[in-house]
Target: VOC domain-containing protein
Amino acid sequence: MERVTGIGGFFFKTSDPDRSAAWYAKHLGVEPPPPSYETSSWWQESGPTVFAGMPMGSDHFDGAERSWSINFRVADLDKMVDQLRRAGVEVDVDPEEYPNGRFANLRDPDGNGVQLWQAAGADATGPVSRAALD
Model:
């Protein structure tokens, strides 16, 4: 069976695409779309990705008007949070450490929720086949 190899794009509505692109580039290092086909798009490091539908009404989205949530992997959550706060971005660090890592939450200029994740446990050690667990 053929499988997808990762997420090739994430698109969302914004009132000011240039402002959003600049914010994500400045604060999170996510480069904006390239100006031409001769320039490559932003490349992310390989690593774990969760792809999951969430129940309608889930508080994961901060209200019914939100229909998406994005989670970015980071190598060092504390350093990223410090960098964001020094730039004036409000960040809420989850005080709990979960078996799969640590999390922090913030908002982009349009009020969309962004989550940062420093992986731990199986997600930090590399891929484990589900078949290998059977």
Observations:
- The beta strands are 70-73, 92-93, 101-107, 113-119.
